[in-house]
Specification:
The chain is an alpha/beta fold and about 200 residues long. The chain is built from eight helices and five strands, in the order E-H-E-H-H-E-H-H-E-H-H-E-H. Bound molecules: thymidine-5'-diphosphate (TYD).
Length: about 200
Amino acid sequence: MTDGLFIAFEGGDGAGKSTQVALLRDAFEAAGRTVLVTRQPGGTPLGREIRDLVLHGDHVSPRAEALLFAADKAHHVEQVIAPALAAGDVVLTDRYTDSSVAYQGAGRDLGAQEIHDLNMWAVDDLVPDLTVVVDVSAQEGRRRRGEVHDRLESEQDDFHEAIRAHYLAMAQGNPQRYLVVDGTLPPEDVHEAVVQRLRSMGALP
Ligand code: TYD
C-alpha cells in the first residue's frame, strides 16, 4: 500500500507507449499532481549500464537476460519508484514486470509463471494500480519501428506475436488491473481511453 499512484505502460516495440506516457504526464500535472516519468530498463545509472549490456551487447543467454532485466527492476523500484510513491507522487513507467513476463517468459519460452515469480521477488511485490497495454500487431510494430535498434526488436514476428498474445491474456485474466487500448487509433483517442479509465478510478478529475 502506498500513497502515490503507480501506472505502467506495456506493449510491443513500436506500440506508441512513450507518446501516451507524455500525454498522461501532462494530464496529471494539469490536475496538480507531481509526476515521475521513468522507464525499464534504464531508470537508474546502474539500470542504464544494464540496458546497454542486455540490449546492445553480444548474445546473452536467455536466463541471464531474465536476471539482468530483473536486477534493473529491483534497483529501480528500491531507488526511484518506491520513494516517489511514498512521497505521494504519480509514477508513470514505460515498461515494468509484465515486459519480462511477456518477453522472457512467453517470447524466450522461459515460463511465464517462473518469470512472474522472479520479477515479483525483484520488485518486492510492488504491483501497479493500473497497467495500460498499448496493443498493436507484430507487423504494425515492425512497420513503425522502421530500423531495428536492439537485440529484442530484431526478433522475428512470431516472437512479437507471442508477446502480444501474452499481454492480452494477462489483461483478460485481470480486467480491474489492466486496460487494453488499440494502439492503431490516433494518439489522442488512446489517451482519452486512458483518462476515462483513470476518472472511473477517481484518479483524475
Ligand atoms: P524499450 O525501452 O521500450 O525500447 P526502446 O526505448 O528502444 O524503444 O525496451 C527495450 C527492449 O527491452 C524492448 O524490446 C523490450 C525489452 N524488455 C524485455 O525484454 N524485458 C523487460 O523486462 C523489459 C523492461 C524490456
